[in-house]
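Hi team,

Filling in the usual template for the complex we talked about on Friday. All components are listed, including any nucleic acid strands or ligand strings, so the model treats them as one assembly.

SUBMITTER: L.P.
PURPOSE: interface mapping
COMPONENTS: two
RESIDUES: 482
SEQUENCES:
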Amino acid sequence: MENTEKIVDILKDVTGLDNVGNDKDQDLFASGILDSMATVEVLVTLQDDFGITVPVSEFDRSQWSTINKISDRVKELE
Amino acid sequence: MNNITPYSSPHYFIYLLVLLLPIIIGLLFGKRFRIYDFIATVIILVITFFGGNASQGISLIAYVLFEMIVVFSYLRYRKKKNNSFWVFTFAVVMAIVPLVFVKLDPLIKNATISLFAFMGISYLTFKSVEIIMEVRDGTIKEIKPTEFVRFLLFFPTITSGPIDRFRRFQKDVLNVPSRDEYLKLLKSGTDKLMLGLVYKFILGYFFGTLLLPKISILALSYAHQRPLGISWALVAYMYCYSMYLFFDFAGYSLFAVAISNFMGVKTPMNFRRPFQAVNIKDFWNRWHITLSFWFRDFIYMRLVFTMMKKKWIKNRITMANVGYVALFLIMGFWHGETWFYIVYGIFHACAMITNDAWLRFKKKHRKQIPSNRFTKYLAIFITFNVVCFSFLIFSGFLNTLWFS
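RESULT (copied from the run log):
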């Protein structure tokens, strides 16, 4: 749960949108919240904050497309 | 007999459908005949590359062997050692060397170099480079030579894409779809084949073969009469060429996806209503999608990632813009070493940068800027015209108009 909140904070910082965490199953790419630039920013921040390495090609858009999915993947990689 | 360009003539479709029949029947009964698949691939490749003089075919074989050496040497290295940036860079450079030579050919006009060329070398190179990148990232850990060759030489997409990804492709070829799934694939494949026929052989033919040459003659007649030869005929050429480009290429891509579907492979689509894009970024998510996503994932995102990690550039906006310029310049050079392809690349980089600036402005002034159905249509209209203008540059027609 804690992870999820941290991830929501990261997403809010990167996108500047306050309502990002409302729906944790919303598709972040399809809804246009994350573009390529924001995606990379999230990736780099995840690496720094969680100490995990996520290569760009591992960042499969279907596996990282919602807050809940990101949270699951981060837990796996931690 | 001559080489037959895939999907260009009725012969090709007849050969293709006959060859596909056993594959389709097999899949209907839940079987993949690996050996037959291989034989069918060889026959199609022979028709495509060995029909005339065999030089294209020999180049193809030499190319595949060369890429195998590069990819499998790198894979062996990666299994033993950790990641050296320089070894990785060397592998990527080696993988694109044949393509670079072929692309430089019109500039140096060397008869030996043009021997390396064959139809589709770009698309095979995209696939090889993708594999090297993913081997570096560790997302591809093991790959057999037969798998590599099957992926590279998958004949429905061999000459002009769509560009599939190795792991996605593997998932499909290792899987035999259930009969229900496969019947759905057959249906969607048939729909795509029909739509492709309408696109390429009716609309593409109408715009490209019937209309375009006439408009071209008219537009060229103004070459020395008007400043820069600008005329209404030139405007007509721009729209007509854009329509031709779309219907011809989208039609081809539909064939490639349809034939893949018949073989139980869900090759990604290349076009998604590109002329309904509301801005240029949206356009690139809809036009030649597998190419723009390849550039996004393997050039833009990697470059931005490195810039951010190594803190080369602090400002995020500058970083994004540097990324756009790099991406579209490389795309321009990839299209060919002529001024109009490079200008086309720069034009799109500028369009992306302007679009980002506008989106930032809009975000700041959300309350003042109206957003309704009218503004949406206006956005589509502006994007469409910007795109058509870029295609006019791309067409090389301005080169003919101004310099010859």
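MY TAKE: Residues 181 and 400 of chain B are 50 Å apart (CA to CA). Residues 1-52 of chain B form one domain.

Thanks, L.
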